[in-house]
Structure formats: structure tokens, C-alpha cells
Write a structure and sequence with these properties.
Elements lengths: L4 E12 L2 E12 L3 E5 L6 H8 L7 E6 L2 E2 L4 H5 L2 E4 L11 H11 L4 H14 L15 H12 L6 E5 L7 H16 L3 E6 L2 H7 L2 E6 L2 E6 L1 H7 L3 E7 L5 H8 L8 E3 L4 E6 L2 H14 L4 E7 L3 H9 L8 H8 L5
Parallel strand pairs: 3-8, 3-9, 6-7, 7-8
Antiparallel strand pairs: 1-2, 1-4, 4-5, 9-10, 11-13, 11-14, 12-13
Helix pairs in contact: 3-4, 3-5, 5-6, 9-10
The structure holds adenosine-5'-triphosphate.
Length: 331
Amino acid sequence: MVADLAVQAHGLVKSFGEIRAVDGVSLEVPRGAVYGLLGPNGAGKTTTVRLLTTLLRPDGGTALIDGIDVAKDPGAVRARIGLTGQYAAVEERLTPRENLSLIGRLYQLPKREIAGRANELLARFDLEDAGDRIVKEFSGGMRRRLDIAMSLIARPSVLFLDEPTTGLDPRSRLAMWELIEELGDDGTTVLLTTQYLDEADRLAERIIVIDAGTVIANGTADELKDQIGGDRISVSIARPENARRAVEALAPLCTSGVVVDAGGVLLSAFIRSGDRVVPQAIRALDDAGVDVLDVEVRRPTLDDVFLKLTGHAAAGDDADDGVAGGSAVDS
Ligand code: ATP
């Protein structure tokens, strides 16, 4: 194995009956890095994480955690990893302190170490005041924070976070991002799965894009956005009869074709760099005698990436909602 790789997967395959949920996934995560596995609902993210964390046995391919084969020595792998799933796996009838000591005991840590570690984690995850309250009363964000604290009790070498912010309100989502950033700053190796480009963009040094069980792209956020042609510009014009002239004025500034929509008054396309190109676009439209009502520029969304990479929009019933809420405006 390569000494500084915490996670190595090669050609992982997992089928459920007819469904090939993971279809030859290869990926590597260097020690101390935060990487993102990005894809829509049903892309195979959770199955990949379950293979890497020994919860499922691969049908094919290999996976190593710290150089240890997940299929050959799952016990040794489990001792080195932490996993937080999509649904907080906390025991509702217990307090955070009791939840933490339960997990500490499962890891067979000495009693005194468990108590110290629990205090440390409660403080770090902003749960000190709530440490002795029953979890049942907690908000989703508090539960998720406790869940991550629990997965850290045995100081894992690699932490897997499966959709850590799905279902959280915006404020808890932001708090969770800050927490994951701190973990990254402390040198914890993290592989997180997400449906949100802005989340991967903010947290992950490198993003592995997965669709239908296959890795379709792997790069930094900037590299992915460059692949899809930069930012998306939308221009509303006053009169549809000017649409052709507007397209001709915009086309030389765009990295994609200009699409005309909404009865000929809404034009959209990709541009390399919003800051630089927007003033030029407005000037070009003005020179062409086109009355412009509104210009909007935004970073690409997951849907944009998918459309470009796969030729189809991100699948899944609620994918659109999640992406619109997460990526369209604030990335
Ligand atoms: P989500 O964001 O919805 O969790 P995902 O990217 O994590 O999506 P997976 O949960 O890995 O996707 O699912 C990949 C495919 O495998 C889906 O078609 C799913 O229905 C199927 N699948 C996953 N687990 C099982 C299972 N235990 N039995 C049958 N099919 C499964």
C-alpha cells in the first residue's frame, strides 16, 4: 500500500438482486484529507460507505483502510474507523453522556478514559449544558452533533460521514459545516457523502462524483466547475423579438450555447468567470440595442454538473429540492 493513503478502493462492486448499486468504484483518500463523495439519491454513496466500513461485503474489488483489507480483517478495520450514518444512531432514552459511555464500553476503553473523553467531546460539540438531558428532547442538529461525537470516541483514524447535513435546518447545517472544518483542521481523515455541490465545495479538498454506481468525475471543486464551463448567466430581456440579437451578442462570451426560454425573454448560458464577463455581456447587449431587465449569475449546481457530465439531470424525486435549497444561490 501507499503509506499516506487512509482509504483505497479499487473496482468495488456490490449488487442487490438486479440492482448494481456500486459498479466498479475506485477512490483514494490521503491521510488527513477531507474528501467528498457527491451524487444524487440512489447514486451508490451509502453502499460505497457501507462497503468501506465493513457493513457490507463487496461482490468484487478491494478496499483498504490504513492498508488493512476490509474483507480480510473487518475487525481491525472497525477499530480504526468512525461512521455517522444518515439517521442519527443515538439512543433517545439516554443522555449524551450515557450514549458516549455506551459506545466507549463497546470499544472496551478503560472507564476513566471514557469519562474524560466524554467530557472532552461534549465540550467540543457544544453539548456541555445538555450533557445530562435525555436525547429525546434534542433538535436534529444536536442529535447529529452527538452522533458524530459518538463516532469519535475511540479516536478513529478515518471518519465516514454519510450525508451529515441532510434534513438539518440552515443554521444547524452551517454549524455542522464549521464542525467538519474543525475536524479537517485537526488532521482527521474524513470521507463525507453529500448531494449538495455547495457542501462538497466548502468542505472537500477533492470531490468524487458518483452516478449509477460509477465514478464519473474526480477533482477539486474548481476543476469540476471548470469542466462544466464556469458560472451560469441568466438574462431577462424586455422583448422576445430581440432574442436573436441578444443570442448573437452573448454567444462570443459564453462557453456553451445560449438557451432561450420563457417565451423568448429568458436567455441562459455558461460563462468562464462571472466577475469579468457580466459587464462585457451587459455592454454587448446594450450595443446590440437589447433592453435588459435583469441579469443573474450563479455558481453551477449539482444539476448543472450532472447535466454536463451525464447528459441527464440529477435523478431522484427530491434531488431538485435539495439542490435548489443548497447550491443555487449561496455557493
Ligand atoms: P441516498 O442519498 O438516497 O442514500 P445513495 O447514493 O446513498 O442514495 P445507495 O443507498 O447506495 O445510494 O443506493 C444505491 C442503489 O442501491 C439504489 O438503487 C438503492 O435502491 C439500492 N439499494 C441500496 N441498498 C439496498 C438494499 N439493502 N437492498 C436493495 N437495494 C438497495
